[in-house]
Amino acid sequence: MIVRFIGRRSRVSAFLYGVIFMFMLSTEACFDSAHFLSGYHGKCSNIHGHRWKIIVEIMRSTLDKDGQTAGMVTDFGNLKRDLKHLADEFDHCLIIERGTLKQNTLDALYDENFNIKEVAFRPTAEEFARYFYFRMKDKGYLVKKLTVYETPNNCAAYTEEI
User: Hey, which residues are catalytic here?
Assistant: First the structure.
């Protein structure tokens, strides 16, 4: 499909033909942590670590008109900072699904001053993709897709229909 760009009129024509124009930005952050999958029958039932990588893709149909961010979707510095802040919450910790360890085991880990992060979901790449998607959305971004790499070759993504 060829769409000719002649100001506002083209936007109306494009809309009528079902074409939506979007600007997209992407950034990534990493964290190192350990986890295990309770109830899983295999190697992942044991505590093991990953270098997780989070990639967020945001979108917007317009660019800022004024100020420091004129001509931008958002300041890349802010986007990177917000994603890094979320990644840092999980950096160098043991991620545990709430309710999967005996209380005395959990207490012993806390007594040893281990950095424990309890989550309300099974700590899989799929669940993390959904978790980080909504955390970035809560920060005001129109998130197109959130991808989490558990290993350099294996990733999961979460998106919503718009």
Answer: 44, 92, 150
